[in-house]
Sequence to fold (195 residues):
Amino acid sequence: MTIEELAGQVGVPVRTVRYYISEGLLPRPAGRGQATTYGEEHLLRLRLIRLLVGQRVPLDEIRQRLAPLSLEEVRALLEEETQRAAEKERTEELSPREYIAMLLRRARLREEETPAEEPEPPASDAFSPTPEVSYLRREPEPRRSLPEPERWHRWELAPGVELLVRSDSFYRFEWLIEQLLRVARQAFGYRGHWE
Fold:
């Protein structure tokens, strides 16, 4: 296809395509002059670049991320980023309360999908009592330690907005926490810190 056709399919000016080529974001086309042609790789990379630019990813970072990718890897990443952009668009229509409720539902579903670990049966021991008389011999109670003080993890999502998670819930809701942090970064562009 010509540069005009390529630019038209993605909805960008021809000068933008030329700029991306000069910056090393797009590969040089085949041929020269009137015989210059652009292929599927140019189209897919250009679509991916536009998606990433829409997410405010700097051009230097886009160049570094895309440079080593094969055509198949570009295709897969484009599909992933397209789905992410569509999900972001859907979630922007939700109120903050609805969005948090949706994330909590997803976290519960993930938790339900994770099979519960069944305890392993005890190893056979010739000296252990039979089940019928096991109540006669009582094992000593394990020594109970003092309860640990509650520990909390804190993330500053934006100036004046924090996310607090109790340590014992951190791994259980790790996916949800990652989603909340990602949304905060996208919404506020704030990198924050955590304790």
About this structure: The first strand starts at residue 152 and ends at 158. The CA atoms of residues 83 and 89 lie 10 Å apart. Helices lie at 3-10, 14-22, 40-54, 59-66, 71-92, 96-113, 167-170, 174-188. The chain has a mean pLDDT of 77.
